[in-house]
Request: fold
Amino acid sequence: MQEQPLPADPDADWGLPGWTYTDPDFFDAEMARIIRPSWQIVCHESDLSSPGTWRSIDYAGESVIVVRGEDHVVRAFTNVCRHRAMRLLEGSGGCAKKIICPYHAWSYELDGSLTGVPVSADYPTLDKRGQGLFAVGLEIWRGFVFVRLKDDGGPSVADMMAPYAQEIEPYRFEDLRTITPAYTRDRAVNWKNIGDNYSDNLHIPVAHPGLTRLFGKSYAIEAQPFVDKMSGYLVDRPSADWWERFYQTYVPRADHLPEANQRLWLYYKLWPNIAFDLYPDQVDFMQWLPINPTQSVLRMMAFALPDDRREMKLARYANDRINRHVNAEDTWLITRVQAGMASESFTVGPIGRSEVCLRSFAAKIRAAIPEARLHHAPAAGWGKQARMARG
Reply:
C-alpha cells in the first residue's frame, strides 16, 4: 500500500515530553494505538521446519503462537483456549501433533479448528465451527515471521522496508538459520527510551568508545517514513582493544556480499520497536516490548548463513564480545535517562536538525497520540477511552 506522508509537525524541533515516558494513561494509549497494531517478529520460517513446530511471543498482555500446519501453511493464534481461557502451550517453542488444553483437554488441530471436546453434549450452545483458536495477523517477510494483534490499516513489513529492499537483498534473509534462539533481558525503562537510544547518532562518539574506535568518523544515519538506518565502516587502523582488533583483522570474507559490505555494519530500526543489525558474519534481531510505563523487556535473537569455517565462528564470538560492551554502555545510559524523565525539572528537550531519526519517531508518536504535544501531563484518567478501545 502507498502510505500517506505525515502532515507537517509544528513540534518538529522538540522531543517527546518527559511525562510520556512515565505516565500510565499515555502507556495505555500507546498500547492501544501503537503496539497492538504493530508488527512483531516471532522467529525465522526455518524454525517452523515441519508440521506441528511452533514458536511463541508474549507481549501487550497476550501470548501468541505461530505454528506450521499439516498443509505446511504457517498460521498465528492467541495462545488461549476458547473454553476457560487457559494458556495452551508453555514455553517459547516446541512441536505438537495437536494443541490440547491442559485444563479440560479441549483439542485443536494445527489449523486452529476445534475438534475435540470431552462430553461435548453437555454444552448446549457449543458450535465447534465457531470456537476455533483466535487468529491474529501474520506476515512472512524475507523468511521472517511477524504477527500483529490488531489490523488498523497500517503498512506491511514489506512496505515499511521497501526503501531498503535492494540494499538488504545480498544478505539472503530467506536462507538464514538461527544461531542464537530468542532470549530476553529486563530493562527498568520505558520502551521508547530504548528505541530513542538505538537511533540516537550524537551519543556514539561520546558514550561508545569501542564503536568510535571501530568506525572512526564514518557513522551515519538517515530516516525513511517507517524505518531508520544507521551504518558504519570498520576502519583499517587497529583498535587498542583486543577483541575489536581481532574482529577488524580476522573477520573472514563473506562471498555473498558485495565488496563495499565486507567491512560494513548496518543497523535498521523498524517502526515502532524492532531493530536488526546486519554484519558480514551474522544478522541480529532485537525488539523492546513494553511491560508498563517504566519496565520493558528486550527480546533478542541471531541468525547466519550456514558456515562452518573456524574463522567465521571466531568472528561471531568477537562480535558478541564487542556488542556486550556496547549493550552495557547503553543500559547505563537509558536507566539514567529514564530517571531524568521523572524529574519535575524536565519538561521537553529540543531536537537538532541532524537528529532525523528522533524527529521521525516523535512525529509518528504525536500523530498517533496528540496528547504527546502537551508539555505537561493531562489530568489522571484521560487514557480511559484508549483502554476501552484496546479490544
